[in-house]
Amino acid sequence: ATATDVVSADEIRDRFSRAMSAMYQAEVPQYETLLTLVDEVNRETLARDAALAERLEAFDELNRLGVERHGAIRVGSAEELSMLRRLFAVMGMYPVGYYDLAEAGVPVHSTAFRPVDDAALARNPFRLFTSLLRLELIESEALRERAAAILAERDIFTREARELIALAEDQGGLTDEQADRFVTAALETFRWHRDATVDLDTYEALNAEHRLIADVVCFRGPHINHLTPRTLDIDEVQRRMPAAGMNPKAVIEGPPRRDCPILLRQTSFKALEEPIRFAGDRQGTHTARFGEIEQRGVALTAEGRALYDRLLAASKEGTAGLAHEAHQQALAEAFADFPDDEAELRRRGLAFFEYRLTDAGRASGPVDASDPEALIARGLVVARPITYEDFLPVSAAGIFQSNLGDGGGEAYAGHANRAAFEADLGAAVTDELSLYAERERASLAAVREALAG
Ligand code: OOG
Ligand code: NI
């Protein structure tokens, strides 16, 4: 194949995310119901809020809204993780961010595979939150060895997937026909299996150690455990979930509802208990798969994030155990010191923005372009909040926990170990803040250059 007949990585990711969604809808009918509900609320929100609709359109976010989702998987070994890195690279998805969840009582560390450049994000921002089990955190040596031995036996990739990944690397991409075969072959890795690879006793021993360990170790592959559409009004979707037959988790994770949404708010419906056939032909059940929704806001700078983390930590005592409405109320009070005005977020350097010329800006002659706020005031430039494309470890732990049963949550003694994660991944993870900072810097430089004449 030559460079002209390969399809773009963006195109492959788009096909893959649609195929994944179709597979999950077929596997988990409640997910289809959730998509319908989110779509309905998004339409109503856009109809009610013309300014929001206009803004999303102007900022290239309206088109991606309908296809936008993230998923999550969990793997057991360095070999699996590094092969996944190569698989996702075929689709233009790269590891961004390092998340340590051991501190929150979940024995994994994680990254998100996602597109990084503007055009790729605008086309389809599909991301996968990918966790690696930290076997070293299992206390019992016998169980640790048993788990490692079981994992060593499995190959989560089909032969065709492996071949096509290698081919894509050699060729610098895949042709249209190869891309379709790749999507089908890659999808196999994430499929649900009703048959466990172990007997019920082994499952129960691993499950007793931690439910997540059983989930990773006892099956043929890392089944996709949820897919998450993006909503424009998470409070409304949460409110309507019970009537649509879904059992939402008690509270929405992340920041409170605000005029200027920041970071990420998430909620989920509880995992389903599903029948499993164990080796030796014994029946049992396993609980792993759930549905989730998210609402995304502006990415925060290091200063903004530090303020968020501080306020969230301070709110913990006052919000513990509260039901949704009271929880939101208490959270809003705890976040009173977080500016809820775009201009102030910008002036105080708390959030990232992308600067663009207006029509007046394009028509303008040379001006003093040193102060972006002055340019905005004169109508020459607009600032667009840059959407947060990543995840939040405290929220992720809350999502994990609500789907692993409400017990647990005790911190593991092991420390975050980014270096070990990167060694297992076979690559460094990109620092998410540097991506947003670079987008802001480049946009401001372009605006200044155009206006300086
Ligand atoms: C991942 C949980 C984290 C999110 O959106 O923060 C997550 C998992 O349960 O595997 O998906
Ligand atoms: Ni999620």
Automatic annotation (TrEMBL):
PANTHER family recorded: 2-OXOADIPATE DIOXYGENASE_DECARBOXYLASE, PTHR39479
Annotated InterPro entries: HGLS, YdcJ_bac-like
Name of a matching Pfam family: HGLS
Annotated keywords: Dioxygenase, Iron, Oxidoreductase
UniProt-recorded name of the protein: 2-oxoadipate dioxygenase/decarboxylase
Native source species: Halomonas halophila
Similarity comment: Belongs to the 2-oxoadipate dioxygenase/decarboxylase family.
CDD domains associated with the record: VOC_YdcJ_like
